[in-house]
Amino acid sequence: MICCCPDGILVAAIDGIGHGDSAAAAANAAAAILETHADEPIITLMRLCDEELRSTRGVVLSLASIDVPHGMMTWLGVGNVQGVLMRANAQAGSAQEVLMLRGGVVGAQLPPLQAAVLSVSPGDTLVFATDGVRGQFMQSLLGLESPQRAADRILERYHTGNDDALVLVVRLAGVRS
């Protein structure tokens, strides 16, 4: 999901624990919480979700809050929703930043939270993928590929076939560098 806020954008990839209606209900509840409080800091958002999802199966969740005026992104992941930031104007060896995930379940086993802050530039691309997508997708990312084409290609080539899968690709356009 993507929510626009006065000074930025909240990007979230949510995966309900398990399968079926109960997993979908947990994911939908998390999305509603995030939409309602999208302008809050991401650690606060994660804690709000944890509190409100206690009566559900819980979710795994990765969040990125992009501060457009300042060209900064704060991100945090609990569980196994992978995240990678592809740099548009990368120097040698710094083409990708990978989200450090914290083990746990939002709504059941929230770990100690520590967000990372990165500078972002126009043309940088953020990719989130749930556990239905094999992690090797990160080696296949192409900088100039359209976000929709990248998401479609990743799903086609890296979907595990035994779990639901979500790939969210966001190209940053209006941030300051």
Structure characterization notes:
23% of the residues lie in helices and 30% in strands. With 177 residues, the chain is of the alpha+beta class. The chain has a single domain (2-171), classed as 4-Layer Sandwich (Phosphatase 2c, domain 1). The strands form two sheets. Strands 1, 2, 3, 4, 7 and 8 form a six-stranded mixed β-sheet that branches. Strands 6-5-9-10 form a four-stranded antiparallel β-sheet, covered by helices on one side. Helix 1 (20-36) crosses helix 2 (42-52). The longest helix is centred in the first third of the chain and has 17 residues, at 20-36. The mean pLDDT is 91.
Number of strands: 10
**CATH-assigned homologous superfamily:** PPM-type phosphatase domain
Look up the CATH topology: Phosphatase 2c, domain 1
Distance between the termini: 24 Å
User: Roughly what is the average pLDDT, rounded to an integer?
Assistant: 91
In terms of per-residue confidence, which ranges show pLDDT below 50 for 5 or more consecutive residues? none
Please give the domain count.
Answer: 1
Share of helical residues? 10-25%
CATH architecture: 4-Layer Sandwich
Number of helices: 3
Q: Major β-sheet, in short?
A: 6 strands, mixed
Task: Round the Cα radius of gyration to an integer and report it.
Answer: 15 Å
Write down the CATH class. Answer: Alpha Beta
Global geometry: globular
Order of helices and strands: EEHHEEEEEEEHE
Structural class: alpha+beta
